[in-house]
Task: inverse folding
């Protein structure tokens, strides 16, 4: 009985100690948090804001240890020129994706300097284009690689096609390089006809547009890059 009585008498003391420890822990926690939250001076806050940090990022930085803030101060937010360059790169990728789907070519790539595509170009070759010899006119095609510089590029005309009669096209003028792919596989007379009709350095080229695509939209996309 004496043991139980002493145990009951000690219980309030134990509860008091637990509560005291909890309060002490809470005080310690809030004191540390307050010290961290106040670790940024007004000068620090202005420094972060002037370098492009958002309000939420400033709050996070000022609630972080001093070492993290020191690293953050060495960080330079992207400049306006860098942001503009990133925007231009994104626009370039978007236009390349569109032209890849719009131009009748196996591949379309773009850079800030120019456009490169792999179309299949064709010519009509024969002794004459008159009605009497129309059945003797041949269509000869070859895979090519076209490089078009944006410097000096001009979009002359966008032409709508006619179903099963004429392809929609965009006429491009400027500094152009043409390479022939697999031309050695053609017959000698076909190679000669191709080389005679298709120049390696033409001053203009006709780009075919896939069916269902508005050639005017293609022309407008390309016109943005003319320099």
Result:
């Amino acid at each position: 009985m004496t043991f139980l009585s002493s145990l009951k008498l000690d219980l309030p003391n134990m509860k008091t100690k637990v509560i005291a420890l909890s309060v002490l822990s809470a005080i310690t926690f809030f004191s540390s948090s307050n010290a961290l939250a106040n670790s940024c001076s007004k000068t620090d806050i202005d420094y972060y804001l002037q370098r492009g940090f958002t309000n939420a990022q400033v709050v996070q930085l000022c609630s972080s240890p001093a070492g993290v803030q020191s690293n953050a101060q060495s960080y330079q937010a992207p400049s306006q020129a860098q942001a503009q360059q990133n925007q231009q790169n994104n626009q370039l990728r978007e236009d390349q994706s569109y032209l890849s789907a719009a131009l009748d070519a196996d591949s379309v790539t773009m850079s800030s300097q120019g456009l490169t595509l792999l179309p299949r170009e064709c010519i009509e070759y024969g002794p004459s284009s008159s009605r009497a010899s129309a059945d003797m006119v041949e269509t000869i095609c070859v895979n090519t690689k076209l490089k078009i510089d944006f410097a000096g590029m001009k979009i002359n005309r966008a032409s709508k096609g006619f179903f099963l009669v004429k392809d929609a096209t965009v006429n491009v003028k400027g500094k152009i390089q043409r390479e022939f792919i697999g031309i050695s596989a053609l017959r000698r007379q076909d190679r000669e006809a191709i080389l005679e009709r298709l120049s390696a350095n033409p001053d203009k080229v006709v780009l075919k547009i896939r069916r269902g695509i508005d050639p005017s939209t293609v022309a407008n996309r390309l016109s943005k890059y003319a320099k």
User: Anything to note?
Assistant: Confidence is low (pLDDT under 50) at residues 1-38. The first strand starts at residue 108 and ends at 110.
